[in-house]
Design brief:
By secondary structure, the chain is of the alpha/beta class. The chain contains eleven helices and twelve strands.
Amino acid sequence: MDRRRLGNEGLTVSALGLGCMGMSEFYGTAEEDESIATIHRALELGIDFLDTADAYGPFTNEKLVGKLIGDRRERVVLATKFGNVRTGDGEHLGIRGDPEYVRQACDASLRRLGVDHIDLYYQHRVDTDVPIEETVGAMAELVEAGKVRYLGLSEAAPETIRRAHATHPISALQTEYSLWTRDVEHDDVLATTRELGIGFVAYSPLGRGFLTGRYESPEDLPEDDWRRHNPRFQGENFRKNLELVREVEAIAEEKSVTPGQLALAWVLARDDDIVPIPGTTTREHLEENAAAVDIAFTEDELARLDEVAPAGVAAGDRYPNMSTVYR
């Protein structure tokens, strides 16, 4: 597995990461034994960049990941997040970025993960009631204390990124990016990270699974799957978005790869400052995803993908409530 650098502070990770969220929540029920086997198989394949958050579960995903890496800690680049505040029964309490909460959240994550440091610590969402300088200042104190090695932001706007980076070097910005979510190319987000030398971590690079071609209707999703409430998976939006999937499937068939592999390879081809972190709960899908790192495109193929999947091609918003992104 090739490696890529995130930022200028020394953080390097596998070119493909593993999003662990779905092992605990949001996308139906996952089998814990298969989740364990999937993470262990990822490490065997050289995928060492594991992504979790305190909000996933809530709290249970960090515990799961901590248990799974156990005696493999030195082989893992561990990323987690704070800021989306939830109760133990799953209630959402809003967003917090005040220094006291930053410190509390980090200590709680360290306990759940069973580790003495976090490799990459993200602010999951920006708290507009707290100056970003205060939040990142508290995060910088965690670096000084040895509890965190590198800092990251998620779904932050260009000006927020600049102010944060001026307070303490930011190594990575995590934001949604895929063939059907190319906003960062045109909202100055990607341009800002590249100007500042910040790495870009692309979450949902498979369009929350839609780009794999596995779903023909919303009814294909489990009853408790969060995507049933996502605008892009509903009604006319779903039907329109299937048109994009058909285009992706056609190109994938010509290249003798799966649609998901094609979608992942496209993100990887955007440049080596980008690391996609597709989530999966099975070894089968993990191995399919890992093979995407070996797929190359001709200029004509990339131009064709630009034509079938331009910015704004997807029908529907990314979230039911878009007020917490790009702040």
